[in-house]
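lol forgot to send this yesterday, sorry. struct tokens for the thing we talked abt
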């Protein structure tokens, strides 16, 4: 299936943008939950993520708290 610039898929059926957004938001929440769990469970992953976060703060690329 291909999505064109006009927002249609292959045979001309309309892309349901509202449904797609809702589905992707749900997937993003699952990914965030998984990353939080890995951060708690794996010290190596936690430490690497913290280093990247600290770099982002120092470079003023984020103002978000680490926990978010």
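and heres what i got for the seq, position by position
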């Amino acid at each position: 299936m291909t999505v064109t610039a006009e927002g249609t898929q292959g045979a001309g059926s309309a892309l349901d943008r509202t449904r797609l957004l809702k589905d992707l938001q749900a997937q993003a929440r699952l990914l965030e939950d998984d990353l939080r769990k890995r951060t708690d469970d794996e010290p190596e992953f936690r430490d690497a993520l913290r280093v990247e976060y600290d770099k982002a703060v120092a470079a003023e690329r984020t103002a978000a708290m680490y926990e978010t």
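The helical segments are 17-41, 43-58. anyway ping me if u want another try
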